[in-house]
Amino acid sequence: MLPINLRRIRDEKMNQLRKGQNAYAETEELVRLMKRAIEKENMPVQCDATNSGCWFIPLSTSKTS
C-alpha cells in the first residue's frame, strides 16, 4: 500500500477552495487539517459535516445590490 500524504491532499483541496470550488474531506484528520488551514487564511467557508465526512463550501464575499 502507498502511504497517504494528508498535507498534500489538504493543499490540493485548499486550492479548490481558492478557485471557488467545493471540497470534501473524508477523514477526521483531513477535516482537522482543512479547518486549521482555513483559519490561517481567514477564508470565508461554510463547513457541512455529514456521517461520512465534511463538505467545505466557499462563501462569496461580493455583495449584490
The SS-based structural class is alpha+beta
Helical stretch tally: 2
Count of the domains: 1
Which regions are unreliable across 5 or more consecutive residues at pLDDT < 50?
Answer: none
- End-to-end C-alpha gap: 53 Å
Mean pLDDT: 90
Sheet having the most strands: 3 strands, antiparallel
As a whole number of angstroms, the C-alpha radius of gyration is 13 Å
Which of globular, elongated, flat, extended, rod-shaped describes the shape? globular
Task: Give the helix proportion (percent range).
Answer: 40-55%
How many β strands by DSSP?
3
Protein architecture, described:
- With 65 residues, the protein is an alpha+beta fold.
- The chain has one domain (6-58).
- 42% of the residues lie in helices and 23% in strands.
- The protein has helices at 6-18, 28-41; strands at residues 23-25, 45-50, 53-58.
- A 3-stranded antiparallel β-sheet has the order 1-3-2, covered by helices on one side.
- β2 and β3 form a beta hairpin.
- α1 (6-18) packs across α2.
- It is globular.
- The mean pLDDT is 90.
